Model the fold of this input.
Amino acid sequence: MSCQRLRNWIEERYDVEEMRRLAKHKLVPVHQYEIWYYTGGIAMFLFILQFITGMVLSFYYIPYFEHANKSVIEIVTKLNMGWFFRSLHHWGAQLAITVLFIHAFSTLLLKSYRKPRELLWVSGFILLGISIFFGLSGYLLLWDERAFAAVRVATGGAGNLPVIGGLIKAFLRGGLDVTGDTLTRFYAFHVSILPLVTLFLIGIHVLLVQYHGMSVPLSLEKKPQRQIPFFPNLFYKDLIIWLLVLGIMVSLAVLLPPEIGKKADPLAPAPENIKPEWYFLFLFQTLKLFPGDIMGLNGETIAIILISCGILFFFLIPFFDRKSSRGEKSVLFTWIGVLYTLYFIVMTIIGFVS
Amino acid sequence: MKRIVFAVSFFFANALGLFAQDKAIEVFPAAPYDRFIIFQALALFWIGIIGLIVIIRMKLREIERIQRMGIDQEQKDTPLLD
Done:
């Protein structure tokens, strides 16, 4: 079938012209903070790359505790370009979570969550949580001693939550301790449950962005706005940034391939100086601030409760910030946003350096 | 005697291996030729990316120029042949 015939075939069945007109007439605001608006597109691009590299790796990975570590070693050492795809998947995950954090904090500071975009914030927040769980579940699939110890600590921390902690811990581990069952469970999360939920949430998130349009910061809302068409202007700008991100990701994958540790041994002691992945460092450092015992109560439990309250408040900010919803300046929530951002950055750096 | 000396030395030679550090797994091709090819491909990849960015940038400028001139807009009273 020639190209023209194929085009006619499609145009007879679908209103392509209408879709083209819609894309051409979709306008986006241009202002001094627009650079932060590209982070959403970058995150989606990285998600697509993660799906592709993940699918390639899943052809060779064996999700069974006896063979998991060996299969990763074989992917890296025996398969043609296996090391590259594994490294791409690793750095893609790191970059995706970094970009998602930047996206979340820029949304918080620009107050893009305000009415009527509360559900956009909610879906984005859940996506961030899922991405972190993607990271944790993917980390265990290595089945080396560091991953094993990290997951043991992370699931143990979740177990310190009162009332539901034990249930969450048992559900995540699939038993009393991290075992082969946990690996199977995390594999199921990593390759089927989380991708499905992610696809669904990305669909809702993108649909809501299309429905509401891109937000304009409060300080610029009353000023006259310049607008440009989404297609082709913004689309080409997006393409340029995606190409740069792809270049950075490939360079990191080539120059800093992630290492593989020794196969996990449940009976061996945890390796020295063990640290969680960088996006858990702020939680790890916060836990360190608390003593083991506070007025007869378990210090870790109190820390986990306080951290959970902090995260819950962060999640519900659009519903607390009434002033921004009314279109008024809200200094308090600007400071709260700055405080959250600084706390995350400082604690992550301290955790990394110490 | 010879056999005993041989057995003892064999035992110590193997036991020393237990104290040796584990060999790290090679996560990047070790052969110099492979490394050269990989770094060369990375350099070419970046040249390709920069080239594509230059082309897209030129295209974007042209689109913006046309939009500034207003000739991308459809005229409302264009006569139609029907």
Remarks:
- Chain B touches chain A through 22 residues (CB under 8 Å).
- Residues 29-72 of chain B form one domain.
